[in-house]
């Protein structure tokens, strides 16, 4: 057996354990009773150590050296590149750090679920201090291995090929035009009257509506399901994708669009190349590309005039309201394109969302690089919220720096992916419209032409191409944020 084939067998074995870890993680977030946390945390930490041992076995280095000298196809060479990349990332960390970070993250995240609602920064900070300390230690080790800054080393885990230098440039550009655009749109919308849905919207009907929309978006229910969790997410594996959302019987809009968003993630997972299942080259290219798919579904498709018409019709079949104008197409359109400054990132509209991301990026960048301390975060958060959105979060940790789950387990370097994803999504839509009648497909209720383009240009590529190669092959250019700006101006000002 060739060295390359030995490597593929080994990485497929690792993927089986990652499969179990993913399902256990979904269960902990959605189904597990609170009393199971300690034992589950220990079990998942043990599993993390086992996976780490498999990823760092001594003979792998020799196999990589030998495989590079073998005659490989272009696909095999790309697969070897991705296997080696994951191996190098894992090999630099000591087993003790992997286990300690897993335990600290599980403890912090579990406590956060109640501490956030109680506005308990003091309690959260005690657990989070250890997560930050271990994350900074990890970043230093990775930085030494890659010859980068600590934050760039963490960023490489989620956005390979992206650097702080490029992000600073991209986000500096956005900060020049975004505040003015937000103000212009808010001023424009002052003259637009709309009706906020009120009353009770039963969870059972919200879920039924969500499932209908998932069918419209061609989600494969034979390989996935929808559940509930505190923080909506898409987990599991391509053959068993687990989506979650959260319901509020006082309104249904956030849950519904949350389902559309997570379905985008899920369809990307379900569309990844099956012939590369279990191999790094068969996985999503980056978190930014992953987010581009969820935002393509939610923002590019989900908030288009044609799709909103479907939502209005379906909502009318599920909910009874005193004023029929509430669920009219005109009112639905206004509700789903409403721009308002708010505290919560996951509830933010398309236009203000980048401000939330840039705020988090700037804080986590300086935290991991050692420029600031973790105890500085609440004050910095408040300062940046006031600067970017004119809101104060002083002493409001629930709606401030404790609102996200990402930092509880040390996922530093992740937040930029959200706005990068929005930019990629706008660029993909612009390219798609040159060959596909997107509006017509949505209007007819058959989105197959849209998904065929995504499958051919994005999903089926997995990680065979670098991010720049993938985007350029699909659109003719590498990331160009001007498409995002044009999209926002066209939707909200014209």
Description:
With 494 residues, the chain is mainly alpha-helical. It is 63% helix and 3% strand. The chain has 20 helices and three strands. The protein has helices spanning 3-30, 37-55, 59-68, 74-91, 95-115, 121-146, 150-158, 164-189, 203-216, 253-271, 287-301, 305-318, 329-336, 353-368, 377-389, 416-432, 438-444, 448-457, 467-475, 482-493; strands spanning 224-228, 234-237, 240-245. Strands 1-3-2 form a three-stranded mixed β-sheet, sandwiched between helices. Strand 2 and strand 3 form a beta hairpin. Helix 16 (416-432) crosses helix 20 (482-493). The longest helix has 28 residues, at 3-30. The N and C termini lie far apart (62 Å).
Secondary structure layout:
Blueprint: H1 3-30, H2 37-55, H3 59-68, H4 74-91, H5 95-115, H6 121-146, H7 150-158, H8 164-189, H9 203-216, E1 224-228, E2 234-237, E3 240-245, H10 253-271, H11 287-301, H12 305-318, H13 329-336, H14 353-368, H15 377-389, H16 416-432, H17 438-444, H18 448-457, H19 467-475, H20 482-493
Parallel strand pairs: 1-3
Antiparallel strand pairs: 2-3
Helix pairs in contact: 1-2, 1-3, 2-5, 3-4, 5-6, 6-7, 8-14, 8-20, 9-10, 9-12, 10-11, 11-16, 12-13, 12-17, 14-15, 16-20
How many strands, which pairing sense, and closed or not: the largest β-sheet?
A: 3 strands, mixed
Count every helix, treating DSSP H or I runs of 4 or more residues as helices: 20
Total beta strand runs = 3
Indicate the low-confidence ranges by residue numbers: none
Q: What is the H-and-E element order?
A: HHHHHHHHHEEEHHHHHHHHHHH
Strand order of the largest sheet: 1-3-2
Q: Which strand-content bin applies to the residues?
A: under 5%
Oligomer: single chain
* Morphology: globular
Cα(first) to Cα(last) distance is 62 Å
Specify the structural class: mainly alpha
Helix coverage percent of residues? 55-70%
Cα-atom radius of gyration: 22 Å
User: Whole-number average pLDDT?
Assistant: 95
